[in-house]
Write a structure and sequence with these properties.
The chain is α/β, with parallel strands linked by helices and 247 residues long. It folds into two domains: 30 residues, no CATH class; 210 residues, Rossmann fold (3-Layer(aba) Sandwich), CATH 3.40.50.1820. Helix content is 38%, strand content 17%. The strands form two sheets. Strands 1-2-4-3-7-8-9-10 form an eight-stranded mixed beta sheet, sandwiched between helices. Strands 5-6 form a two-stranded antiparallel ribbon. Strand 1 and strand 2 form a beta hairpin. The longest helix has 20 residues.
Length: 247
């Protein structure tokens, strides 16, 4: 096309030049296609992890999500991927124990180093676009919420922002503070048996002076539904506000 333009003159040359400039502007304004999610399969030495890269180039923080009992990381993380990756990379470790009926589950002990290994493996695959300067966001669902709480309470500052969904947790404020947790969001659907216990735990933590919030997920039970998308902006924004990055 460039050679054809050079052979033209007069008014036709001006039209050709305007067309070329317009095409360049359109190409420059077209956003880069988001990188596709990928899976790092588990091996004898390394845990598996599903990685959803941030939608735009540059430095981005990471969110780590722990799935529930006998779940698949893809099934849990797909509900969060679109909104989380607008600003952060989403890393979804696979639990280490396989369930007979499918999926994987978290053991009672020894899961912390496996999760950290999975996170570091994912970050290495993402390359220089990972920002750890503000710590990580941690989300846990069901059994993954119990493991996420343990991870946060012994995380040595790695997880300042934590969201726990659908679990009857009892948090240790002293451990949370000592390990750098700044904000704790508890969440459950109105039909989830964990709704009221989590709301009461939120009240207890607030009375103790810890920055905690409860977020109801509407008329749903102990499962993710499309309606979760309505609540995620509020949840993610509140968590990010711990360092002024949110609203």
């Amino acid at each position: 096309m460039g050679h054809a333009c050079l052979r033209r003159s007069g008014a036709k040359a001006k039209v050709c030049l305007l067309f070329a400039v317009g095409l360049v502007l359109v190409l420059m304004s077209t956003p880069a296609r988001a990188a596709a999610p990928f899976t790092l399969a588990e091996t004898e030495r390394e845990p598996g992890v599903v990685v959803y890269p941030a939608q735009t180039p540059g430095l981005h923080r990471v969110t780590v999500l722990l799935h529930g009992m006998c779940g698949e990381p893809e099934n849990a993380c797909r509900h969060f991927a679109e909104q989380v990756t607008a600003n952060e990379h989403l890393l979804c470790p696979r639990a280490s124990r396989r369930c007979d009926g499918g999926g994987s589950t978290w053991p009672q002990t020894g899961f912390e180093p496996k999760i950290e290994q999975a996170v570091l493996r994912a970050e290495a695959a993402l390359g220089p676009g990972v920002d750890e300067s503000h710590g990580r966001t941690l989300i846990g669902y069901s059994l993954g919420a119990y493991r996420a709480l343990e991870l946060a309470q012994h995380g040595a500052g790695k997880y300042p922002r934590v969201m726990l969904i659908g679990a009857r947790i009892v948090a240790n404020q002293k451990l949370l503070r000592a390990n750098g947790v700044e904000r704790l969001l508890l969440s459950a659907g109105a039909w989830d048996m964990m709704h009221e216990p989590m709301r009461r735990e939120t009240d207890r933590l607030v009375r103790g002076g810890f920055t905690t919030r409860f977020l109801g997920l509407g008329p749903v039970g102990h499962a993710f539904t499309p309606s979760l998308q309505e609540y995620l902006p509020d949840a993610l924004g509140w968590l990010a506000a711990s360092d002024g990055a949110g609203s």
